[in-house]
Amino acid sequence: MITEDKQHELLMRAAELLKEQEALKVQLRINEAEMTAVAREYGEAYRIWGFRPAEVLRQACVARGIL
């Protein structure tokens, strides 16, 4: 059986991890919005379209040795 102190310790750690996870999710949404804007700009400039614009950018970066 878990003691109250151990339970409190585990819940405090879980709370820290959940806060960190939420911050990472926020950052991911910001990154995805930026990636969408860059993909749109790249597509308009070079007339390259696809169903997965971020993948088009990834392939372009890999092909040029940037990534």
User: pLDDT under 50 segments (min length 5)?
Assistant: none
Work out the number of β strands.
Answer: 0
Order of helices and strands: HH
Considering DSSP H and I runs of 4 or more, what fraction of the residues is helical?
over 70%
Going by helix content, strand content and strand pairing, the class is: mainly alpha
Distance separating the two termini: 50 Å
Report the biggest beta sheet as strand number plus sense, adding barrel if it closes.
none
The overall pLDDT, averaged over residues, is 91
Q: Radius of gyration in whole Å, from Cα?
A: 21 Å
Number of helices: 2
Overall form: rod-shaped
**Strand-residue proportion:** under 5%
